[in-house]
Design a protein that fits this description.
heterodimer; A: 205 residues; mainly alpha; B: 289 residues; alpha+beta; four-stranded mixed sheet
């Protein structure tokens, strides 16, 4: 993650160099917006949170000491901004679908090759929809893991969680995501052993 | 804990590359025996392969919006910003907006300062011009606070929020210029870029002042450059009604007037203060000349 150019931008931005900060914004705006747009359903809120993240970065640069990477720090600011807005708007969604805090059990799925994989774009749409049904906590860790490729350690740092919590949230979040995808019938063949009446017939959803 | 339970607990670590090496062989052996776990891993990898990618994100105009929000940081708080700007507009004499695009004392003074600065090296000249423009604006703003600004100082009256901003910015942060650790050519290059950028912003914030500065032709055209022809106004305001927006950075300037892009909440807040019907959704406000 060490990047001489980025370090130079950070140093200059810290000194008040707006153009250097602009370089940082342009480098990370996609990552940040990708996160805030999925954490917040309203595009305006997502824009606001992303702006807030960068404005906080601008103001807090002097406090940024490079203990974590700049991107991880930025995700932290973006995550905080999203949580603030979720809180402010009282929009914490009621969980739909499976209860995520239940003891998670892996559904039996006899076929290891998801047919929907062939339609990756379609699956992507399904994932977007499924993500929006997860709790913010699960969505957050999954986005940082799958979209931003952060390690558990980095996610823990970004969200001020301990690694054990990150691990269990990712596991539960992923299981919940998979369950939603399985239920929607656009992923692996329907799980016939537990959720669909134990018919054992694949064609029946 | 039987074998299946043991490995079930490790599947996510495996998928995420967080599994200790010592466990890896055992888990992979389990996967060959256990369709359930194998399916989970396959599904997790399929999710990863199809997962939305940040690279696809549309960021049109975002960095520009962030940068234009930077100096306004303390007052930029969505709808609240409009109230703050409205207060500033009233404070400044209530004629903000009328002066846009008209000739007046402020631009002439800025040009005067600029000409003086041009006698030094070109890079320094640009800096001088920029600083001089800010100085001129600041002074004019101070001068225009009394009520006579309504006639003589109309163009300058559009400046106070901006110039207050600039002043705050300057004192809050150490100037970038004195840094001498970089090699000189790169530093000069950077400084030039900075100057162009900041001058451009100054032009957007204060079109009447910078537009007449001869050193910055690109700044004069800056606001017009990205004006799409198919812009639709959610709200059309007279210059007077649009006064509260003067402290914001217009997205574009056309023959019709200045275009500001606002969020839904901001539009609604603005409409309320003007006794107009709030349009649905965010969009553009056109402040007519």
């Amino acid at each position: 993650m060490k990047d001489a150019l980025e370090e130079k931008w950070i140093r200059r931005a810290r000194q008040g160099d707006r153009e250097a900060f602009a370089e940082l914004v342009r480098r990370y705006e996609k990552q940040v917006l990708a996160l805030t747009r999925r954490m917040l359903s309203s595009p305006q809120d997502a824009e606001e949170a992303a702006q807030e993240a960068f404005l906080s970065a601008w103001q807090g640069l002097s406090a940024f000491r490079g203990e974590s990477s700049f991107s991880t720090w930025l995700y932290r600011l973006a995550s905080n901004a999203c949580v603030d807005i979720l809180r402010r708007e009282g929009r914490r969604r009621a969980l739909s679908g499976p209860s995520l805090d239940d003891e998670a059990r892996l559904p039996a799925s006899p076929d290891p090759s998801p047919q929907a994989l062939a339609e990756r774009a379609e699956l992507r749409e399904q994932i977007e929809t499924a993500l929006s049904r997860l709790s913010p906590e699960h969505r957050q860790v999954l986005l940082l893991r799958e979209m931003h490729q952060l390690s558990y350690e980095e996610i823990a740092r970004a969200l001020s969680l301990d690694v054990g919590t990150v691990k269990s949230r990712i596991s539960r979040g992923r299981q919940a995501l998979r369950r939603i995808l399985l239920q929607s019938g656009n992923f692996s063949p329907p799980d016939t052993s537990k959720k669909t009446g134990k018919t054992g017939k694949e064609g029946r959803q | 804990m039987n074998e299946h339970e043991k490995y079930t607990a490790l599947l996510d670590l495996y998928v995420d590359g967080e599994l200790p090496e010592a466990e890896r062989a055992g888990l992979e052996a389990h996967l060959t025996r256990c369709p359930e776990c194998a399916a989970y891993v396959a599904d997790a990898l399929a999710i990863r392969a199809a997962f939305p990618a940040w690279e696809d994100e549309d960021t049109e105009g975002f960095s520009r919006r962030v940068l234009s929000a930077l100096p306004k940081k303390r007052r930029w708080a969505g709808p609240l910003a409009l109230a703050a700007c409205a207060a500033a507009a009233v404070f400044a004499g209530g004629v903000i907006g009328l002066g846009r695009g008209m000739g007046g004392a402020a631009p002439q003074e800025a040009a005067l300062y600029s000409t003086g600065g041009a006698s030094s090296s070109s890079s320094a000249a640009a800096v001088t011009a920029e600083e001089a423009a800010e100085d001129a604006v600041t002074e004019d703003a101070a001068d225009s606070l009394p009520m006579e600004s309504a006639d003589a100082g109309a163009p300058a009256a559009a400046m106070p929020p901006v110039s207050m901003e600039s002043a705050g910015e300057e004192t809050d942060e150490p100037p970038a210029a004195p840094e001498i650790t970089e090699n000189t050519a790169a530093a000069a290059e950077r400084r030039k870029a900075d100057t162009a950028e900041e001058t451009e912003e100054a032009a957007e914030d204060a079109p009447s002042a910078s537009a007449s500065a001869p050193e910055t032709p690109e700044a004069a055209g800056g606001a017009q450059a990205n004006a799409p022809a198919d812009r639709q106004a959610a709200l059309v305001l007279t210059a007077e009604e649009g006064a509260p927006l003067a402290a914001l950075t217009p997205e574009a300037e056309t023959e019709e007037g200045l275009w500001y892009r606002l969020t839904e909440e901001e539009l609604a807040a603005l409409a309320r203060t003007l006794d107009k019907t709030p349009p649905s959704g965010g969009g553009y406000v056109l402040v007519e000349r």
